[in-house]
Amino acid sequence: MQYNAKAPYIVETHWQIEEVLDGDSIIICNRFTQMKKEIRLYGLDAPEVKINRKMKEDEEKSSLPAQLLLQFGLQSLHFVLSVAPPKTVVTIITEQENYYDYWNRQLGYVILPSGLCLNELLLQNGYAKATQQYYCGKLAEYQAMNRQAQLNSIGIYSQIKVF
């Protein structure tokens, strides 16, 4: 992951994944203080894993039935669990000028022990789509990764063209 020198970042180490909520949100726990917080992944959106307000919005926007979107959400969740299960040690990188989302969750790039970025893995493997709603400095790159996954029909895109 390359960083834009113009955007200052906050780097947080010594965290581990406590719980994977869905394809784009995790709960992390500090390995020393035991403090917990939710991290919303920058620049992407994964389908929901339960019927809620956002699922109804997604159903209207995509014209796909909630049950199908739910299956896609579970596929996204299982992908995250396969590459970043609970207890995985992670580094969280947050853009200083874009720290919280509308719901007051901390936004972040989640860096795995391998050095790979979970945000990018989700997009490259077709389990999330790029979105401006959780804006980040890498949005243009994320949109390109998303488009490539669509063109290659991988992940959720192996079953449907758009979600």
Give short descriptive properties of this protein.
163 residues, alpha+beta
What order do the helices and strands come in, and which of them pair?
Layout: E1 9-22, E2 25-30, E3 36-41, E4 44-45, H1 53-62, H2 66-83, E5 89-95, E6 106-111, H3 118-124, E7 129-130, H4 139-151
Parallel strand pairs: 3-6
Antiparallel strand pairs: 1-2, 1-5, 2-3, 4-7, 5-6
Describe the structure.
- There is one protein chain.
- The chain is of the alpha+beta class and 163 residues long.
- The radius of gyration is 15 Å and the shape is globular.
- The mean pLDDT is 94.
- The strands form two sheets. It has a five-stranded mixed β-barrel. Strands 4-7 form a two-stranded antiparallel sheet.
- The chain contains four helices and seven strands.
> What is the H-and-E element order?
EEEEHHEEHEH
Largest sheet: 5 strands, mixed, barrel
Radius of gyration: 15 Å
Number of strands: 7
- N-end to C-end Cα span: 26 Å
As a percent range, the share of helical residues equals 25-40%
Percentage of residues in DSSP E strands: 25-35%
The stretches of 5 or more residues where confidence is low (pLDDT under 50) are: none
- Strand pairing plus helix content: what structural class? alpha+beta
Average pLDDT score: 94
- The largest sheet has its strands arranged as 1-2-3-6-5
If helices are DSSP runs of H or I spanning 4 or more residues, what is the number of helices? 4
Globally, the shape reads globular
Could you give a quick summary of the protein structure above?
This protein has helices spanning 53-62, 66-83, 118-124, 139-151, and strands spanning 9-22, 25-30, 36-41, 44-45, 89-95, 106-111, 129-130. The protein has 163 residues and is α+β, with helices and mostly antiparallel strands.
